[in-house]
């Protein structure tokens, strides 16, 4: 089939877990778009071709970015910011261009500075896993997931409709928000759990426990410790001013719990556990 009778074309720049899953999901759609791919790692591109997740791979991401109806940057945050600057003069005037970074403020500021808000929508799929690379990608990653979308004053009704339709076709629910509110929420919902998992895993390792000795609960709590440092380090650099105070508050909470245990105050421990169980089950925080 040609791109015209397959529903246009989508360029996916970056074929790791997120971009690879996006390519797989698009390729699996009935009468789906032509999928154009690029990754800096040649083996990922080769794997995507072998898996029939992409119809074509390029040696230069700009070559596919300038041809596609939709362009999605699934690259680390600093790379996305760089490619936005390099490619903004190459996209088609009617293209929908998105990223999938988990922080939106730096991206939207760059989009505003480049005067591309008439084509740009920031997206953050709240999906993923601890794996990395194309081998961790799966076509159903977005099905049943949630995607945050961020636009600006120049975001047209047509662009809103196209962005929503893109993600909903992959089985995701979408919610629009602003960049600052999104990032405040993500530091709590994503960044804090990530570094807490790293700290817990480090403490367990220092105490001589092997990962294979963990029970189901310990396995669940340390799953994020296997996440890619290359992906997370740039994000934490941006979110550090929000994240550091939260870590210090958590440290004080841990000290309080240790004090309660030292004082044999199991009533305080029970109260904490009752409150957190209620919160986890949807009863709110009281």
List keywords for this structure.
alpha/beta; disordered N terminus; eight-stranded mixed beta sheet; 50% helix; 286 residues
Give the topology, please.
Blueprint (H helix, E strand, L loop, with lengths): L8 E5 L3 H12 L5 E5 L3 H9 L5 E2 L3 H5 L4 E4 L3 H11 L8 E4 L5 H9 L6 E6 L20 E5 L6 H12 L4 E5 L1 H28 L9 H7 L6 H34 L3 H15 L6
Parallel strand pairs: 1-2, 1-4, 2-3, 4-5, 5-6, 7-8
Antiparallel strand pairs: 6-7
Helix pairs in contact: 4-5, 7-9
Question: Unreliable runs, pLDDT <50, ≥5 residues?
Answer: 1-5
Number of helices: 10
Q: Please identify the structural class as seen in this structure.
A: alpha/beta
Number of strands: 8
Biggest sheet strand order reads 3-2-1-4-5-6-7-8
Helix content: 40-55%
Rg over alpha carbons? 21 Å
The geometry reads as globular
Work out the strand percent: 5-15%
Order of helices and strands: EHEHEHEHEHEEHEHHHH
Span between termini: 58 Å
Oligomer: single chain
Average of the residue pLDDT scores: 93
Walkthrough of the structure:
It is a single chain. The chain is α/β, with parallel strands linked by helices. It has ten helices and eight strands. The protein has an eight-stranded mixed sheet with strand order 3-2-1-4-5-6-7-8, with helices on both faces. Strand 7, helix 6 (157-168) and strand 8 (173-177) form a beta-alpha-beta unit.
């Amino acid at each position: 089939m040609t791109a015209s009778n397959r529903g246009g074309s989508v360029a996916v720049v970056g074929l790791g877990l997120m971009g690879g899953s996006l390519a797989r999901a698009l390729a699996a759609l009935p009468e789906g778009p032509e999928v154009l791919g690029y990754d800096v790692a040649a083996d990922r591109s080769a794997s995507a071709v072998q898996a029939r997740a992409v119809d074509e791979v390029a040696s230069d991401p700009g070559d596919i970015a300038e041809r596609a109806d939709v362009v999605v940057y699934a690259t680390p945050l600093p790379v996305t910011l760089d490619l936005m600057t390099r490619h903004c003069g190459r996209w088609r005037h009617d293209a929908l261009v998105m990223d999938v970074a988990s922080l939106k403020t730096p991206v939207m500021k760059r989009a505003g500075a480049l005067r591309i808000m008439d084509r740009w929508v920031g997206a953050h799929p709240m999906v993923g896993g601890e794996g990395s690379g194309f081998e961790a990608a799966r076509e159903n990653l977005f099905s049943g997931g949630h995607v945050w979308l961020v636009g600006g004053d120049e975001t047209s009704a047509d662009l809103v409709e196209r962005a929503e339709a893109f993600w909903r076709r992959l089985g995701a629910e979408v919610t629009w928000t602003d960049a600052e509110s999104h990032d405040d929420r993500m530091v709590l919902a994503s960044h804090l759990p990530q570094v807490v998992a790293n700290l817990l895993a480090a403490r367990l390792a220092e105490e001589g426990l092997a990962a294979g000795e963990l029970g189901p609960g310990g396995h669940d709590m340390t799953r994020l410790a296997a996440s890619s440092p290359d992906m997370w380090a740039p994000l934490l650099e941006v979110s550090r001013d929000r994240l550091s105070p939260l870590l210090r508050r958590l440290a004080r909470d841990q000290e309080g719990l240790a004090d309660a245990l030292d004082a044999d105050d199991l009533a305080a421990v029970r109260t904490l556990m009752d409150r957190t169980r209620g919160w986890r089950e949807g009863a709110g925080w009281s």
